[in-house]
Amino acid sequence: MPEPPVPGNCLTRVLVHTPAHSQMAGALSYWSEAPLPPGTLVRVPLGQRELLGVVWSIDSTSASDATLDPAKLRPVTTVLDAMPPLSAHWRDLIRFAASYYQRAAGEVALAALPPQLRDMSSVQLKRRLKKLATATAKRTQAVVKPATETDTAPTPEPDAATPAVVLTQEQHQAISQFHQQPGPFLLFGATGSGKTEVFMHCTAALLASRPEAQALVMVPEINLTPQLEARFKARFCPLYGTDAVVSMHSGMSPAQRLNSWLAAHSGAARVVLGTRMAVFASMPQLQLIVVDEEHDPSYKSSEGARYSARDLAIYRGHLEGAKVMLGSATPSLESWHHSRPAEEGGRYLRLEMPSRIGRGQLPLVRRVDMNHQPKSCIISAPLLAAITQRIARGEQSMVFLNRRGYAPVLQCSDCDWKSECPHCSAYRVFHKIDRTLRCHHCGLSERVPRACPACGNPDITPLGRGTERLEEHLAELLAGVQRPDGQPVRIVRIDADTTRLKGALESQLAQVHTGEVDVLVGTQMIAKGHDFRRITLVAAVNPDNALFSSDFRAPERLFSLLMQAAGRAGRDETVTNQSEMWLQTFLPKHPLYEALKKHDYPAFAASQLKERQQAAMPPFSFQALIRAEARSQEAAQGFLTLASQAASSQSDTATLLTQITLYPAVPMSMARIANIERAQMLVESPSRTALQRFLNAWQGVLHSTRAHPECKGVIRWAIDVDPHNI
Ligand code: ADP
Ligand code: ZN
Ligand code: ZN
Fold this sequence. Notes:
The protein has 5 domains: 10-112, GIY-YIG endonuclease; 144-353, P-loop containing nucleotide triphosphate hydrolases (Rossmann fold, 3-Layer(aba) Sandwich); 364-404 and 467-614, P-loop containing nucleotide triphosphate hydrolases (Rossmann fold, 3-Layer(aba) Sandwich); 407-464, no CATH class; 622-721, ACT domain (Alpha-Beta Plaits, 2-Layer Sandwich), CATH 3.30.70. The chain is 31% helix and 21% strand. It contains 19 helices and 28 strands. The strands form 6 sheets. It has a 7-stranded parallel beta sheet, sandwiched between helices. A 6-stranded parallel beta sheet has the order 13-23-22-14-21-20, with helices on both faces. Helix 14 links the parallel strand 22 (535-540) and strand 23 (580-585). The model is unreliable at 1-5 and 143-162 (pLDDT under 50). Bound molecules: adenosine-5'-diphosphate (ADP) and zinc ion (2 copies).
């Protein structure tokens, strides 16, 4: 028996969500009547408030403990002991993420917990846990049926180890490698090569190997991949019960999110399907992490701790001894580089599945040289003819353009007036449907003026094209064309504007699936993930922009987007006509399009990596961005410049600077949003460790620089480690 604790005598460290850059970055001290194991959830007072917190280990290196006056400490208010503490692995993951991404551990930890937990009393939590337990017991007794099923999901068999499909040779090979090797793995498989089937197979094997084993399956945006969710549910719910597969994403209600989280934490959930936030799910028996479409930019958080869920998945797998499998048809160049042969330094094992399942062939890529088309042509004659032909055959086409709205700018034909946003360095976009000018950055929305606000000229005209205008234009071009049943052509547009209402996306997608729609127009939203069976033509109207971008990752993103889009076509083997991907371009000979034509991701990756190596860019160097926001551009840049100068004058940072390049402060490409000026500074190093050391040491310098009287105008600053958009 342990000694009975002396009441009021236990020093307890508790992590709470303190403001990002407050000086209270570490855990705070409280006293509790009994010793509390690290990972226990508690409620503690902070000022006038009471906050949710996580008991953290006593940090022996902290000198301040000795000087703490126990009489001044406040007691822990409530111990949420109805549930087991968060594991040491979970706490290590939080600690690592906070330190790597330069944020407070309290912020990362509390953001990783379901929001509803923040306001719950011990009694409420107990009640919720009890309710969940009885519901689960009831359901596992009842006959279990898959919650949702789609026509694409294979009929589940009672034994997951022998699913309904007969694996292809390539799938077999990948799975047996997965079993034999420790990983991490990069499953490089063409769209439609059966990657999801491999994920499910590996998941099934691990779940069957141990009765408690859990698997985490991450997807970029769950709303866009409902089919994947349906397939996992269809496969695993019949085996382990409807509660065994839970989802975790921001589209869920707070109550649903808490339930999923508790199910994962208690071990009742065997499979967690989630977006990037799920990388922090508490899963005490985690055995496998799958990251589907691992190249997708949405795995990188763009606020708070700007973490990459893909990179954390690798770290977490290592920490917990769980296998990690990344999958993509167009891997990120980082993952591709990491999966080079081990002799060359590769750390991931690449598993290749180049062939599509069945007879579904990869589409033929056709380039239209827009230099030979009439000047203001939007849809070239050969593309229009091809779409018309598909309609006549009862097949579907998908046309995409990465710009929503009707026109990106309105312009006065007399004076210089353009529809600039008064608060941002951007134009307001013309939306014809409600005749508004909307700023896509600050949200400002106004009726379109009757006449030019500058000179009164009534003739103001749209400049350029968005999806709304493209849809209108296509409707005009295809007005006389008929479907095989004699009905007029049906066009539907899917973008952020048409899908704002709940359920709108689902119903629009359903229209496409049932074949009611002949032509689908949209932004990149439609190019990802969806399994559109009857689409035989995909067209990118104006993809060239990305080739001129100042962001060195733009070509990589364009290539993967176009490959993804091409992957939408020709998935149905009953449609025997060769499917096609059309590109309208002014640079038909561009190497990116050449590689795309051959569906040759490795060639594209090799040329990109060569360029990156020559320019010493990631993955051959490591970067961080410091961003500052201020009332004036001068103040934002001034702060960064001062902090940079301070770095070379202070000894702890100055010694590290030999391996660091600090670039000059510059305005961000969107320099002003909602009247706030934004500037950034790039920090680069050939060594990840050196960069980390420098950033750790520089944090303090940035804090003190911010307090400098010259930096009064600075509103906030943040560090973005491994930034995506430069
Ligand atoms: P990916 O994830 O690589 O795009 P999927 O796993 O979605 O590919 O597979 C594409 C289609 O092929 C799906 O409809 C899937 O059910 C089917 N499929 C996968 N593996 C097999 C197989 N071994 N035999 C028959 N059909 C398969
Ligand atoms: Zn004017
Ligand atoms: Zn604006």
